[in-house]
């Protein structure tokens, strides 16, 4: 886990689940595993993150409740500061995260928490930035590592080879 718990990739989906409903650590762990099977989720990590988020005021704990014969469980809920941080993390993920990264995918998944026109403007700006990066790469292939330019170095055609037996 990163030294700054707020930088953990589980924080955004954890806050997202708390937007939906207050929950205890065990339930959050189960829901994270169910919804985000590609993320490494352990109950100890979720518990540690909840403690760190409580210390920073992003989440608040409720009075422990007993259900049936089970031991009392403490549910956590999102605070106003937590909601603001949640939206900030979505914005940062949409603006700055690596293309096709887990952080970008999670930010897109929760983009509905932002006003639609705001999310659209962020994504438009990202698309413009990526278009410009593409133009720069196409104009200046010398700045690209050789491994990315094998087609140029070997004189290979830019179109993919035709499958064997395709009739041509």
What does this structure look like?
The chain is mainly alpha-helical. Helix content is 52%, strand content 5%. The protein contains seven helices and three strands. It has helices at 11-20, 25-35, 43-55, 80-96, 102-109, 116-139, 150-154; strands at 23-24, 59-61, 75-78. Strands 1-3-2 form a three-stranded antiparallel beta sheet. The radius of gyration is 22 Å and the shape is elongated. It starts with 10 loop residues before the first helix and ends in a 14-residue tail after the last helix.
Describe the secondary structure blueprint for this structure.
Elements: H1 11-20, E1 23-24, H2 25-35, H3 43-55, E2 59-61, E3 75-78, H4 80-96, H5 102-109, H6 116-139, H7 150-154
Antiparallel strand pairs: 1-3, 2-3
Helix pairs in contact: 1-4, 2-3, 4-5, 4-6
Helices and strands: which structural class? Answer: mainly alpha
Summarize model confidence as the mean pLDDT: 83
Cα shape = elongated
Radius of gyration: 22 Å
What's the arrangement of strands in the largest beta sheet?
1-3-2
- Low-pLDDT stretches are none
> CA-to-CA gap between the ends?
55 Å
- Count the helices. How many? 7
